[in-house]
């Protein structure tokens, strides 16, 4: 088991109301850190740590005033911000389809949630990170943007491709401030976004597409993300880390 020490460190985690975001927040809380958590969903009842470590804000990440105010309030409460984990996103199977056919208002909404919200959080946290000696960010993309799909979600995959470009650009811009930025590309993972895999049989069948023979867990993705935030990754910036059980090998 990998262990981390986030004592006296503060993270911002989006999508912390469930799935991978919740797991990242809990790993940091268990490792002694404090977390500013943002999600459109209500605060979950299985958060780790104690009330002094947690600041949960329910709201819309596509509203820049809300994002900035929440992050500034969290920084005032905890005295600093060291990390950002951009995890929040949507996958709209019934509305996001081929760009040749889909409603382009849905395209814009998906981009606002899956990419532009990360612009808002990065703009809000960087001034606080620059007050310290170092910082780190991790942004969640998807292996979906690295391959085609016979049943496309073109807005989702194109926005997720932009996440990687955003991360690399931030890595270059902020290196002189000792602020690192990396992107994670999850493969097939059992999260609330994949509620369609609702039986053991479906989960087993999907896992057969993966060389390791199973789909991933939110905990496995969270561990990879927290490693990239941690001091153990202090010389890693600008990378795209695929965590997919070998899916892209096929």
Topology overview:
Blueprint: E1 10-14, H1 19-30, E2 34-39, E3 54-58, H2 64-78, E4 83-86, H3 104-130, E5 135-140, H4 154-174, E6 179-186, H5 200-207, H6 218-229, E7 240-243
Parallel strand pairs: 1-2, 1-4, 2-3, 4-5, 5-6, 6-7
Helix pairs in contact: 1-6, 2-3, 3-4
Detailed description of the structure:
With about 250 residues, the chain is an alpha/beta fold. It has one domain: Rossmann fold (3-Layer(aba) Sandwich). Helix content is about 40%, strand content about 15%. The protein has 6 helices and 7 strands; from the N terminus they run βαββαβαβαβααβ. It has helices spanning about 20-30, 65-80, 105-130, 155-175, 200-205, 220-230; strands at about 10-15, 35-40, 55-60, 85, 135-140, 180-185, 240-245. A 7-stranded parallel β-sheet has the order 3-2-1-4-5-6-7, with helices on both faces. Strand 1 (about 10-15), helix 1 and strand 2 (about 35-40) form a beta-alpha-beta unit. Helix 1 packs across helix 6 (about 220-230) and helix 3 (about 105-130) runs parallel beside helix 4. It is globular. The mean pLDDT is about 95.
CATH class: Alpha Beta
Q: Radius of gyration in whole Å, from Cα?
A: 17 Å
Structural class: alpha/beta
Strands across the major sheet, in which order? 3-2-1-4-5-6-7
Number of domains: 1
At the fold tier of CATH, the topology name is: Rossmann fold
Helical residues, percent: 25-40%
Cα end-to-end separation: 29 Å
Kindly estimate the percentage of residues that lie in beta strands according to DSSP: 15-25%
Instruction: Provide a count of the helices.
Output: 6
Considering the protein shown, what is the CATH homologous superfamily? NAD(P)-binding Rossmann-like Domain
Count the E strands. Answer: 7
* Biggest sheet statistics: 7 strands, parallel
What ranges have pLDDT less than 50 throughout 5 or more consecutive residues?
none
Q: Per the principal axes of the C-alpha atoms, what is the gross shape?
A: globular
CATH level-two architecture: 3-Layer(aba) Sandwich
Mean pLDDT: 94
Topology as H/E string? Answer: EHEEHEHEHEHHE
């Amino acid at each position: 088991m990998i262990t981390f020490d986030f004592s006296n460190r503060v993270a911002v985690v989006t999508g912390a109301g469930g799935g991978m975001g919740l797991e990242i927040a809990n790993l940091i809380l268990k490792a002694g850190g404090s977390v500013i958590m943002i999600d459109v969903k209500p605060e979950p009842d299985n958060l780790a740590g104690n009330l002094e470590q947690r600041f949960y804000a329910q709201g819309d990440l596509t509203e820049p005033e809300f994002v900035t105010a929440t992050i500034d309030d969290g920084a005032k409460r905890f005295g600093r911000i060291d990390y950002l984990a951009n995890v929040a996103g949507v996958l709209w199977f019934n509305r996001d389809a081929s760009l040749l056919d889909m409603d382009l208002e849905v395209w814009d909404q998906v981009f606002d949630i899956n990419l532009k919200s990360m612009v808002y959080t990065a703009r809000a946290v960087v001034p606080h990170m620059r007050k310290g000696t170092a910082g780190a960010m991790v942004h969640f993309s998807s292996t979906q943007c690295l391959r085609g799909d016979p049943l496309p979600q073109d807005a989702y995959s194109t926005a997720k491709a932009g996440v990687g470009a955003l991360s690399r650009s931030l890595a270059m811009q902020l290196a002189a401030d000792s602020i690192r930025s990396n992107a994670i590309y999850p493969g097939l993972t059992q999260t609330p976004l994949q509620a369609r895999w609702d039986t053991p049989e479906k989960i087993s069948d999907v896992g057969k597409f993966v060389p390791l023979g199973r789909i991933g867990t939110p905990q496995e993705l969270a561990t990879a993300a927290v490693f990239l935030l941690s001091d153990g990754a202090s010389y890693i910036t600008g990378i795209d880390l695929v965590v997919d059980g070998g899916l892209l090998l096929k």
